[in-house]
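Q: Structure tokens for this one, please.
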Amino acid sequence: RARYIAESVEFLAQKILILDKKANTTDSLNDMMFTYFSGSEADVEDSGVQDCRWFAIKDLEGKNFGRFAVKVSDESAKVNINTVDAGVLGSLLSQLGVDSSKGSSIVSSRPLNTIEETGRFFTKDDFKKIKDYITVYSEDLEIDLHKKRRVYLNSASYQNISDGLMRAGVSSGPEKALNLKDAGDRDVEQSIQDIYVLDVLGPTSVMESGSWQKIIGFYQAPAGGAAGKFGWSNLPIEDGEYYCYLYGPTRYDPIGEVYIDPASGRTEPIRSPGDGLVEKVNVSNGSFSLYIKPFADSMCRFGFVKLVSLTPKKGMTRGLTCGTEAVVINEIMVKPAKDVFYNGAEIEPGATLTKDFTDIKPGDYYCLVRAVNEGGMVGSVSILGKIAKNLYDHDYFPFPVHVGIDGKLKVIIVNEFYRKSTFKGVVLSQEPDAEFIELLNISSDEVGLSDFYFDVYGSNGELVPGWPGYIPEGTKIQGFQHLVFSVDSESSTVTP
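A: Here is the predicted structure, written as tokens:
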């Protein structure tokens, strides 16, 4: 509710400015932007002066929904602390009766996102003296607060869009960049780009522990604790700058305030695992370090980082990034699937559970793990020597599972979480036989599929004999509809 009220405030202020511009070609203190909001009921700036009035918002029944007060000021008439010369800023401070040496401190801390960030250099009374004379507004609308060129989405390349999202710390930036490109083009071809990754990098050392404590597989710190310094060394990649994404042991853990250089005073809050740093990390001689300070309002947990490059780098793994087009393609294994369940068990943190399942038909399977509770934690799963870290209910074990002629399957669960997990069993589905491909049209337009075909490649990238499979000429998929294409790998047909 508060957010919608705040948005209505912004909308109202914009409308008043438009009306004011139509009514007056020159500015004065009698303009609507000043008189419409003036009053003596509220102090929106905490300046000690009641200089605004309250606006009441009522619902359809006439009951109070909320209220707001707003003050509009001319930012272009103020000193931009992100661009002003240190001498000019010091002169302004001196004229306002504030220590002029603070100007150099502000300049060395630029860029600043809000004028309130200067509060660490001033007393509350001094800040009140200067706040109406300074701004962080930029006259160059093409430059962001970090002095980097903004990205124009309608004409920029995938590389530029992806770089723009990643340097803003947006999670899954390359994938979202492809989604933006696919949403803007006229074809229905799914865009695919290379990306280079070094993943699941746990710290090799803790140079300063602060309030962080090592738990099994991750680190944990209480709310308001001291910062720790984590180090990575002997990385098998070339020196240079890399985008860095941080993760906790689960998908819900806040990480903390992260910074590379404590002298800069600039921190980046990472509340959602998978978010990245605006500032790139610099790998030198295979090493880099990060400081992480727990949030004041919540316990924090940290597990590992992922380094990403959009260009080829020695020692990094090449992968494919895919966008989402009007026609979405999903490869799905058909039933029959076999539920291999039992009553289930709880697993204490750090404990191991071994479960042997029998009477399973020999063959190759995909394996989905189940917890006792819907969506609950399972743990790190080991089957036939293959390990998948920190799986949840309905997560797939990322390796094919082979059951021999004895019909037995051993599953080992290690709980590396900070609280109890559970294990109920597995769901096995056949592979590689009896596959089908589902195509879903998420647009309102009819899409012709005559130019589509299916390729199947082996583990070494070679095309499997008998493929590609072609879709019959004239096949179409209607808006918001789906088509299913099935194949039997034992079929004698030369071309599927």
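A few notes: The longest helix spans residues 2-23. DSSP finds seven helices and 32 strands in the chain.
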